[in-house]
Amino acid sequence: MSAISNPVVAIAGATGAVGVEMLKCLEERNFPVSKLKLLASARSAGKTMKFRGEEIAVEELTEESFEGVDIAFFSAGGGISRKFAEAVKRAGAVMIDNSSAFRMDPDVPLVVPEINPEAAADHKGIIANPNCSTIIAITPLWPIHKKNRITRIIAATYQAASGAGQAAMDELEEATRAHLSGEPFEQKIIPHPYPFNVFSHNSDIDPENGYNEEELKMVKETKKIFADPEIRVTATCVRVPVLRAHCEAIDFECEKPISVAEVKEILSTAPGVKVVDDREKNYFPMPKDASGEDDILVGRIRQDISDPSGKSVSIFVAGDQLLKGAALNAVQIGELLVK
Ligand code: A2P
User: Fold this and answer.
1) What does R_g of the chain's alpha carbons equal in angstroms?
2) Is the beta carbon of 76 within 6 A of some atom in ligand 1?
3) What does DSSP say about strands 296-303 and 312-320: parallel, antiparallel, or unpaired?
4) Confidence (pLDDT) at 2
5) Does any ligand 1 atom lie closer than 6 A to the CB of residue 175?
6) What is the mean pLDDT of residues 300-317?
């Protein structure tokens, strides 16, 4: 793979919750953009968005949008990614896709740059950005896995509204306001009462095994990214009334005994991770602190007392779903392609 210099970059879904963050990440990280195309639905055509002090007009996404484009970030849903993948390929651009459309395709690398950057080089025109809950769980687990192979992961998520898009974030705020003023509110995006409530993740349930899609993404994607088909993963995915950062309670079991001190030592120098673990002050990762942060916050690091072998540790993590869970990881993948 030869590096791309000064790419023409497109963002498909630029007006969405993730698209807006992609734009910010490109600017903040000084991504070498020679020209930026902002693409969204016809509804947004003509709106402008600011990039490096310049107002750029949003264009309607069409088959012709990718002429001259080198790198196309997609975050407009799986259907849109599937629909336009050929057009991106025809234009000779590389698609970095935030949707789940191609993640498990054996020809498509699924990349977390802190974990498997080398996989990006094998792309055939598409590189997939993993599911947000997967990225947030496995970025801190990878450096531990490398030192003392993790054989099993048990995760429970506390997921924010942002994973369901900007409209879901707006709906959470509006529904909360209505709830507090005792007014009726009809939710259109989220299928259950959202303010002051917690509910099982709003993705389809597999009728055979009872897992929802989000949980199965965590199971399958972890195996692919770690290139470890034997790793055993289970998850329970739940939405909480938080705007943009996911938390996860994770229990992992290693091949050999591992101490809390070792885990802290490994995580203290791990890229993309920050230890927040103050037992004295009872201060641990929170969505409030993770929002707007690039790093995944990790705390509650403790030996799992239910496993007398000393091989299991429990942690609690918080990560910004829109940043490391989506836009930031995608832009980091882009950075692997440019020089
Ligand atoms: P638009 O704002 O014009 O609807 P989110 O994940 O926050 O819901 O954002 C979804 C993104 O995908 C938005 O930028 C949205 O554009 C874009 N999008 C949705 N449907 C289409 C479509 N049919 N064609 C192009 N872009 C679309």
Assistant:
1) 20
2) yes
3) antiparallel
4) 84
5) no
6) 98
Global pTM reads 0.98
**Alpha carbons 145 and 14: distance in angstroms, whole number:** 35
Q: In what order do the strands lie in the sheet with 150-158?
A: 232-236, 150-158, 245-254, 312-320, 296-303, 273-275
Q: What DSSP line would sit under 209-237, residue for residue?
A: T--BHHHHHHHHHHHHHHT-TT-EEEEE-
Q: Which CATH class is domain 134-321?
A: alpha beta
Q: Which pLDDT does position 215 carry in this prediction?
A: 98
In the reported structure, the alpha carbon of residue 16 is separated from the centroid of ligand 1 by a whole-number distance in angstroms of 6
Q: Are 228 and 148 in contact (CB under 8 A)?
A: no
What DSSP element (H or E) covers 17? helix 17-28
Q: Taking the domains of the chain in order of start, what are their residue ranges?
A: 8-130+326-337, 134-321
- At 253, list the tokens: 């079991």
Does the domain at 8-130+326-337 match CATH 3.40.50.12160? Answer given as no
